[in-house]
Automatic annotation (TrEMBL):
It is an enzyme of class 2 (transferase). Keywords: Aminotransferase, Pyridoxal phosphate, Transferase. The keyword Transferase applies. This is Aminotransferase. The lineage of its organism: Bacteria, Bacillati, Bacillota, Bacilli, Lactobacillales. It comes from Suicoccus acidiformans.
Length: 390
Protein backbone atom coordinates (compact mmCIF):
# COMPACT_ATOMS: atom_id res chain seq x y z
CA UNK A 1 0.00 0.00 0.00
CA UNK A 2 2.83 2.43 0.79
CA UNK A 3 4.25 1.95 -2.69
CA UNK A 4 0.85 2.68 -4.22
CA UNK A 5 0.34 5.78 -2.09
CA UNK A 6 3.67 7.16 -3.25
CA UNK A 7 2.32 7.06 -6.81
CA UNK A 8 -0.82 9.06 -6.08
CA UNK A 9 -1.07 12.54 -7.60
CA UNK A 10 1.10 14.70 -5.35
CA UNK A 11 -1.30 17.61 -5.69
CA UNK A 12 -4.04 15.43 -4.18
CA UNK A 13 -1.76 14.30 -1.36
CA UNK A 14 -0.78 17.87 -0.56
CA UNK A 15 -4.24 19.41 -0.22
CA UNK A 16 -6.16 19.19 3.02
CA UNK A 17 -9.73 18.18 3.68
CA UNK A 18 -12.07 21.06 4.51
CA UNK A 19 -11.12 22.54 7.88
CA UNK A 20 -14.70 23.81 8.21
CA UNK A 21 -16.14 20.33 7.87
CA UNK A 22 -13.48 18.81 10.10
CA UNK A 23 -14.08 21.28 12.94
CA UNK A 24 -17.86 20.96 12.56
CA UNK A 25 -17.64 17.17 12.83
CA UNK A 26 -15.34 17.43 15.84
CA UNK A 27 -17.64 19.63 17.90
CA UNK A 28 -20.81 17.87 16.75
CA UNK A 29 -20.06 15.21 19.36
CA UNK A 30 -20.79 17.68 22.17
CA UNK A 31 -24.28 17.27 23.65
CA UNK A 32 -26.61 20.25 23.39
CA UNK A 33 -24.46 22.05 20.80
CA UNK A 34 -25.93 25.01 18.90
CA UNK A 35 -24.02 24.86 15.65
CA UNK A 36 -23.50 28.12 13.78
CA UNK A 37 -20.87 26.51 11.62
CA UNK A 38 -22.00 25.52 8.13
CA UNK A 39 -23.14 27.83 5.34
CA UNK A 40 -26.52 26.29 4.66
CA UNK A 41 -29.91 28.03 4.69
CA UNK A 42 -32.19 26.85 7.48
CA UNK A 43 -35.20 27.43 5.21
CA UNK A 44 -36.88 24.72 3.17
CA UNK A 45 -36.87 24.71 -0.61
CA UNK A 46 -40.01 26.62 -1.72
CA UNK A 47 -43.03 24.34 -2.13
CA UNK A 48 -43.60 25.15 -5.80
CA UNK A 49 -39.99 24.15 -6.53
CA UNK A 50 -40.31 20.88 -4.62
CA UNK A 51 -43.51 20.13 -6.49
CA UNK A 52 -41.73 20.62 -9.81
CA UNK A 53 -39.18 18.03 -8.72
CA UNK A 54 -41.97 15.59 -7.81
CA UNK A 55 -43.66 16.12 -11.17
CA UNK A 56 -40.33 15.47 -12.92
CA UNK A 57 -39.91 12.17 -11.06
CA UNK A 58 -43.48 11.07 -11.75
CA UNK A 59 -43.09 12.08 -15.39
CA UNK A 60 -40.04 9.81 -15.73
CA UNK A 61 -37.70 12.74 -16.36
CA UNK A 62 -34.80 10.43 -15.56
CA UNK A 63 -32.67 10.51 -18.69
CA UNK A 64 -29.61 12.48 -19.75
CA UNK A 65 -30.10 16.16 -20.41
CA UNK A 66 -27.83 18.02 -22.86
CA UNK A 67 -24.32 18.59 -21.52
CA UNK A 68 -24.79 22.37 -21.08
CA UNK A 69 -28.14 21.80 -19.37
CA UNK A 70 -31.73 22.03 -20.57
CA UNK A 71 -32.26 24.96 -22.90
CA UNK A 72 -35.31 26.23 -21.02
CA UNK A 73 -33.32 26.35 -17.77
CA UNK A 74 -30.45 28.19 -19.48
CA UNK A 75 -32.97 30.65 -20.91
CA UNK A 76 -34.49 31.19 -17.47
CA UNK A 77 -31.03 31.64 -15.95
CA UNK A 78 -30.04 34.14 -18.65
CA UNK A 79 -33.24 36.12 -18.06
CA UNK A 80 -32.73 36.00 -14.28
CA UNK A 81 -29.22 37.48 -14.49
CA UNK A 82 -30.31 40.13 -16.99
CA UNK A 83 -33.38 41.13 -14.98
CA UNK A 84 -31.65 41.13 -11.59
CA UNK A 85 -28.14 42.40 -12.39
CA UNK A 86 -28.24 43.63 -16.01
CA UNK A 87 -25.74 40.98 -17.14
CA UNK A 88 -26.43 39.68 -20.64
CA UNK A 89 -25.55 36.17 -21.77
CA UNK A 90 -26.83 34.15 -24.73
CA UNK A 91 -28.62 31.08 -23.35
CA UNK A 92 -27.54 29.00 -26.34
CA UNK A 93 -23.80 29.57 -26.12
CA UNK A 94 -22.92 31.42 -22.90
CA UNK A 95 -24.67 29.58 -20.06
CA UNK A 96 -24.18 26.08 -18.64
CA UNK A 97 -25.73 24.20 -15.72
CA UNK A 98 -23.35 22.44 -13.33
CA UNK A 99 -23.50 20.17 -10.29
CA UNK A 100 -23.52 23.01 -7.79
CA UNK A 101 -21.35 26.11 -7.72
CA UNK A 102 -18.45 23.93 -6.54
CA UNK A 103 -18.29 22.08 -9.85
CA UNK A 104 -18.81 25.38 -11.66
CA UNK A 105 -15.71 26.78 -9.93
CA UNK A 106 -13.61 23.69 -10.50
CA UNK A 107 -14.57 23.37 -14.17
CA UNK A 108 -13.76 27.06 -14.70
CA UNK A 109 -10.38 26.87 -12.95
CA UNK A 110 -9.51 23.63 -14.75
CA UNK A 111 -10.33 25.30 -18.06
CA UNK A 112 -8.22 28.39 -17.38
CA UNK A 113 -5.14 27.13 -15.54
CA UNK A 114 -1.98 25.39 -16.64
CA UNK A 115 0.39 23.95 -14.03
CA UNK A 116 2.40 26.76 -12.49
CA UNK A 117 -0.10 29.51 -13.27
CA UNK A 118 -0.82 31.92 -10.43
CA UNK A 119 -4.25 32.96 -9.21
CA UNK A 120 -4.88 36.04 -7.06
CA UNK A 121 -7.26 35.25 -4.20
CA UNK A 122 -8.38 37.98 -1.76
CA UNK A 123 -8.16 36.68 1.81
CA UNK A 124 -9.94 35.67 4.02
CA UNK A 125 -11.43 33.24 1.50
CA UNK A 126 -13.54 30.10 1.24
CA UNK A 127 -11.04 27.30 1.88
CA UNK A 128 -11.84 25.22 -1.19
CA UNK A 129 -10.53 27.97 -3.48
CA UNK A 130 -6.95 27.29 -2.46
CA UNK A 131 -7.42 23.52 -2.59
CA UNK A 132 -8.89 23.61 -6.09
CA UNK A 133 -6.08 25.79 -7.41
CA UNK A 134 -3.39 23.57 -5.87
CA UNK A 135 -5.08 20.36 -7.06
CA UNK A 136 -4.89 21.66 -10.63
CA UNK A 137 -1.24 22.59 -10.14
CA UNK A 138 -1.70 26.33 -9.86
CA UNK A 139 -0.37 28.65 -7.20
CA UNK A 140 -2.67 30.87 -5.13
CA UNK A 141 -1.41 34.41 -4.46
CA UNK A 142 -3.19 35.48 -1.30
CA UNK A 143 -3.91 39.16 -0.67
CA UNK A 144 -4.77 40.04 2.93
CA UNK A 145 -7.80 42.38 2.88
CA UNK A 146 -8.37 42.53 6.64
CA UNK A 147 -7.09 46.12 6.86
CA UNK A 148 -9.51 47.21 4.09
CA UNK A 149 -12.81 45.97 5.53
CA UNK A 150 -12.26 42.76 3.55
CA UNK A 151 -12.45 44.45 0.15
CA UNK A 152 -9.84 43.85 -2.56
CA UNK A 153 -8.36 47.24 -3.43
CA UNK A 154 -6.90 48.34 -6.75
CA UNK A 155 -3.67 49.28 -4.98
CA UNK A 156 -3.09 45.83 -3.53
CA UNK A 157 -3.99 44.18 -6.83
CA UNK A 158 -1.49 46.42 -8.65
CA UNK A 159 1.14 45.42 -6.11
CA UNK A 160 0.46 41.74 -6.82
CA UNK A 161 1.02 42.29 -10.54
CA UNK A 162 4.18 44.27 -9.83
CA UNK A 163 5.53 41.28 -7.90
CA UNK A 164 4.26 38.37 -10.02
CA UNK A 165 3.72 39.88 -13.47
CA UNK A 166 2.59 37.70 -16.36
CA UNK A 167 2.56 34.56 -14.18
CA UNK A 168 -0.85 35.68 -12.90
CA UNK A 169 -3.45 33.94 -15.04
CA UNK A 170 -6.61 34.74 -13.09
CA UNK A 171 -8.20 36.59 -10.19
CA UNK A 172 -10.76 34.67 -8.11
CA UNK A 173 -13.18 36.94 -6.25
CA UNK A 174 -16.23 36.34 -4.08
CA UNK A 175 -18.71 39.13 -3.32
CA UNK A 176 -20.85 38.89 -1.26
CA UNK A 177 -18.10 37.11 0.61
CA UNK A 178 -17.83 33.89 2.51
CA UNK A 179 -16.59 34.19 5.29
CA UNK A 180 -16.88 37.94 5.85
CA UNK A 181 -20.23 38.94 4.35
CA UNK A 182 -18.51 41.89 2.67
CA UNK A 183 -19.86 43.40 -0.55
CA UNK A 184 -18.16 46.05 -2.65
CA UNK A 185 -19.44 49.25 -4.19
CA UNK A 186 -19.60 50.03 -7.88
CA UNK A 187 -16.67 52.44 -7.45
CA UNK A 188 -14.53 49.78 -5.78
CA UNK A 189 -15.35 47.26 -8.49
CA UNK A 190 -14.59 49.79 -11.24
CA UNK A 191 -11.18 50.52 -9.70
CA UNK A 192 -10.28 46.82 -9.74
CA UNK A 193 -11.60 46.48 -13.30
CA UNK A 194 -9.33 49.34 -14.34
CA UNK A 195 -6.31 47.37 -13.13
CA UNK A 196 -7.38 44.29 -15.09
CA UNK A 197 -8.84 45.67 -18.32
CA UNK A 198 -5.58 45.84 -20.28
CA UNK A 199 -4.16 42.59 -18.96
CA UNK A 200 -4.83 39.11 -20.43
CA UNK A 201 -6.16 37.86 -17.11
CA UNK A 202 -9.33 35.93 -16.38
CA UNK A 203 -11.71 36.93 -13.60
CA UNK A 204 -13.59 34.09 -11.92
CA UNK A 205 -16.36 35.73 -9.93
CA UNK A 206 -18.19 33.60 -7.37
CA UNK A 207 -21.54 35.34 -6.91
CA UNK A 208 -23.55 32.56 -5.30
CA UNK A 209 -24.70 34.92 -2.52
CA UNK A 210 -25.84 37.65 -4.95
CA UNK A 211 -29.48 37.48 -3.83
CA UNK A 212 -28.51 38.04 -0.19
CA UNK A 213 -27.50 41.72 -0.16
CA UNK A 214 -28.95 43.93 2.57
CA UNK A 215 -27.79 47.51 2.09
CA UNK A 216 -26.54 48.61 -1.30
CA UNK A 217 -26.69 46.39 -4.37
CA UNK A 218 -24.84 43.45 -5.85
CA UNK A 219 -22.10 44.52 -8.26
CA UNK A 220 -20.46 42.08 -10.69
CA UNK A 221 -17.17 42.56 -12.52
CA UNK A 222 -19.04 41.04 -15.44
CA UNK A 223 -20.44 44.54 -16.02
CA UNK A 224 -17.04 46.10 -16.54
CA UNK A 225 -15.00 43.17 -17.92
CA UNK A 226 -17.50 41.04 -19.87
CA UNK A 227 -14.88 39.41 -22.10
CA UNK A 228 -12.63 38.42 -19.19
CA UNK A 229 -15.14 37.42 -16.54
CA UNK A 230 -16.54 33.97 -15.79
CA UNK A 231 -19.54 34.45 -13.49
CA UNK A 232 -20.43 31.64 -11.08
CA UNK A 233 -23.85 31.43 -9.49
CA UNK A 234 -26.35 28.82 -8.34
CA UNK A 235 -29.56 28.13 -6.46
CA UNK A 236 -28.22 26.77 -3.16
CA UNK A 237 -28.41 30.07 -1.28
CA UNK A 238 -31.06 31.99 -3.24
CA UNK A 239 -33.64 29.20 -3.16
CA UNK A 240 -32.43 27.05 -0.23
CA UNK A 241 -31.54 24.22 -2.64
CA UNK A 242 -28.14 23.07 -1.35
CA UNK A 243 -28.93 19.38 -1.74
CA UNK A 244 -30.33 19.76 -5.26
CA UNK A 245 -26.83 20.68 -6.49
CA UNK A 246 -27.55 23.23 -9.22
CA UNK A 247 -24.83 25.67 -10.22
CA UNK A 248 -24.55 28.04 -13.17
CA UNK A 249 -21.65 29.36 -15.24
CA UNK A 250 -21.91 32.45 -17.45
CA UNK A 251 -19.14 33.49 -19.85
CA UNK A 252 -18.65 34.74 -23.40
CA UNK A 253 -19.06 32.05 -26.06
CA UNK A 254 -15.36 31.38 -26.92
CA UNK A 255 -14.55 30.80 -23.24
CA UNK A 256 -17.74 28.89 -22.54
CA UNK A 257 -17.01 26.48 -25.38
CA UNK A 258 -13.92 25.36 -23.48
CA UNK A 259 -15.60 25.31 -20.04
CA UNK A 260 -18.38 23.14 -21.47
CA UNK A 261 -15.86 20.53 -22.66
CA UNK A 262 -14.30 20.32 -19.20
CA UNK A 263 -17.73 20.17 -17.55
CA UNK A 264 -18.64 17.27 -19.83
CA UNK A 265 -15.55 15.32 -18.77
CA UNK A 266 -16.29 15.90 -15.09
CA UNK A 267 -19.99 15.04 -14.85
CA UNK A 268 -21.49 14.59 -18.37
CA UNK A 269 -24.50 16.69 -17.31
CA UNK A 270 -26.27 17.92 -14.20
CA UNK A 271 -29.14 15.90 -12.75
CA UNK A 272 -32.31 16.07 -14.85
CA UNK A 273 -34.76 16.22 -11.95
CA UNK A 274 -32.81 18.99 -10.23
CA UNK A 275 -32.78 20.95 -13.48
CA UNK A 276 -36.56 20.74 -13.73
CA UNK A 277 -36.88 22.07 -10.18
CA UNK A 278 -34.32 24.79 -10.91
CA UNK A 279 -36.28 25.91 -13.96
CA UNK A 280 -39.37 26.36 -11.79
CA UNK A 281 -37.29 28.28 -9.24
CA UNK A 282 -35.94 30.78 -11.76
CA UNK A 283 -38.98 31.00 -14.00
CA UNK A 284 -41.66 31.38 -11.32
CA UNK A 285 -39.71 32.08 -8.15
CA UNK A 286 -37.27 34.82 -9.08
CA UNK A 287 -38.04 36.62 -5.83
CA UNK A 288 -38.15 33.59 -3.54
CA UNK A 289 -35.10 34.90 -1.67
CA UNK A 290 -36.86 38.04 -0.44
CA UNK A 291 -38.49 36.62 2.73
CA UNK A 292 -35.30 34.75 3.53
CA UNK A 293 -33.25 37.91 3.06
CA UNK A 294 -35.53 39.85 5.41
CA UNK A 295 -35.18 37.17 8.08
CA UNK A 296 -31.41 37.01 7.65
CA UNK A 297 -31.11 40.78 7.99
CA UNK A 298 -32.99 40.76 11.29
CA UNK A 299 -30.78 37.95 12.55
CA UNK A 300 -27.65 39.73 11.37
CA UNK A 301 -28.60 42.90 13.22
CA UNK A 302 -29.27 40.99 16.44
CA UNK A 303 -26.03 39.00 16.37
CA UNK A 304 -23.96 41.99 15.28
CA UNK A 305 -25.26 44.16 18.11
CA UNK A 306 -24.89 41.46 20.76
CA UNK A 307 -21.36 40.45 19.81
CA UNK A 308 -20.23 44.06 19.40
CA UNK A 309 -21.44 44.79 22.93
CA UNK A 310 -19.35 41.84 24.13
CA UNK A 311 -16.21 43.38 22.66
CA UNK A 312 -15.92 41.63 19.30
CA UNK A 313 -14.80 43.86 16.42
CA UNK A 314 -16.91 43.27 13.32
CA UNK A 315 -16.98 44.85 9.87
CA UNK A 316 -20.76 44.86 9.55
CA UNK A 317 -21.64 42.43 6.76
CA UNK A 318 -23.92 43.61 4.00
CA UNK A 319 -24.34 40.26 2.29
CA UNK A 320 -24.40 36.46 2.66
CA UNK A 321 -25.26 35.12 6.15
CA UNK A 322 -22.01 35.23 8.10
CA UNK A 323 -20.49 37.28 10.89
CA UNK A 324 -16.69 37.37 10.82
CA UNK A 325 -15.76 38.64 14.25
CA UNK A 326 -12.37 39.58 15.68
CA UNK A 327 -11.91 38.04 19.11
CA UNK A 328 -11.69 40.61 21.96
CA UNK A 329 -8.07 41.26 22.91
CA UNK A 330 -8.56 40.15 26.51
CA UNK A 331 -9.55 36.66 25.40
CA UNK A 332 -7.69 33.72 23.85
CA UNK A 333 -6.30 34.91 20.50
CA UNK A 334 -5.64 31.55 18.86
CA UNK A 335 -8.85 31.22 16.84
CA UNK A 336 -8.88 27.40 16.87
CA UNK A 337 -8.40 27.23 20.62
CA UNK A 338 -10.95 29.99 21.22
CA UNK A 339 -13.57 28.28 19.06
CA UNK A 340 -12.85 24.96 20.75
CA UNK A 341 -13.20 26.52 24.22
CA UNK A 342 -16.48 28.14 23.21
CA UNK A 343 -17.75 24.80 21.92
CA UNK A 344 -16.74 22.88 25.03
CA UNK A 345 -17.81 25.43 27.66
CA UNK A 346 -20.64 27.41 26.02
CA UNK A 347 -21.86 24.68 23.64
CA UNK A 348 -21.92 27.08 20.70
CA UNK A 349 -20.21 26.23 17.42
CA UNK A 350 -18.09 28.84 15.61
CA UNK A 351 -15.54 28.17 12.85
CA UNK A 352 -11.94 29.27 13.58
CA UNK A 353 -10.84 32.15 11.37
CA UNK A 354 -7.41 30.62 10.81
CA UNK A 355 -8.96 28.26 8.25
CA UNK A 356 -9.79 31.16 5.92
CA UNK A 357 -6.24 32.29 5.11
CA UNK A 358 -4.23 35.46 5.86
CA UNK A 359 -6.22 37.98 7.86
CA UNK A 360 -8.40 35.24 9.30
CA UNK A 361 -6.49 34.44 12.47
CA UNK A 362 -7.85 36.09 15.66
CA UNK A 363 -11.34 35.85 14.13
CA UNK A 364 -14.24 33.41 14.23
CA UNK A 365 -16.94 32.92 11.63
CA UNK A 366 -20.50 32.16 12.57
CA UNK A 367 -23.46 31.53 10.30
CA UNK A 368 -26.71 33.22 11.23
CA UNK A 369 -28.61 30.90 8.91
CA UNK A 370 -30.25 29.54 12.05
CA UNK A 371 -33.53 30.21 13.81
CA UNK A 372 -33.84 33.32 15.94
CA UNK A 373 -34.56 31.09 18.93
CA UNK A 374 -31.23 29.30 18.42
CA UNK A 375 -29.40 32.57 17.87
CA UNK A 376 -30.86 34.11 21.02
CA UNK A 377 -29.87 31.09 23.08
CA UNK A 378 -26.41 31.02 21.49
CA UNK A 379 -25.79 34.69 22.25
CA UNK A 380 -27.01 34.16 25.83
CA UNK A 381 -24.51 31.32 26.26
CA UNK A 382 -21.67 33.35 24.71
CA UNK A 383 -22.41 36.27 27.01
CA UNK A 384 -22.38 34.02 30.08
CA UNK A 385 -19.16 32.35 28.95
CA UNK A 386 -17.29 35.60 28.31
CA UNK A 387 -18.59 37.16 31.54
CA UNK A 388 -17.24 34.16 33.47
CA UNK A 389 -13.79 34.65 31.91
CA UNK A 390 -13.70 38.33 32.82
Amino acid sequence: MDALLQRINQNALNIQASSIRAFDEHISKIDGMIKLTLGEPDFSTPDHVKQAGIVAIEGDESHYFPTPGSLKLRQAASHFLNNKYQLRYDANTEVIVTVGATEALFASLLTVLNPGDKVVVPSPFFGMYQSMIRLIGGEPILIDTSADNFILTAEKLEAAFAEHGDAIKAVLINYPSNPTGAIWTEEQAKAVAKVLEDRPVFVISDEVYSELVYEGKHVSLGHFLPEQTIVINGLSKSHAMTGWRVGLVFAKAPVMEQVTKVHQQLVTTATSISQEAAYEALQNGANDAEPMREAYQARRDFVYQTMTELGFTIAKPNGAFYIFARIPEDLEQDSYQFALDVAEHARVGFIPGSGFGPGGEHHVRLSYAASMDDLEEAMKRIKEYITSLR
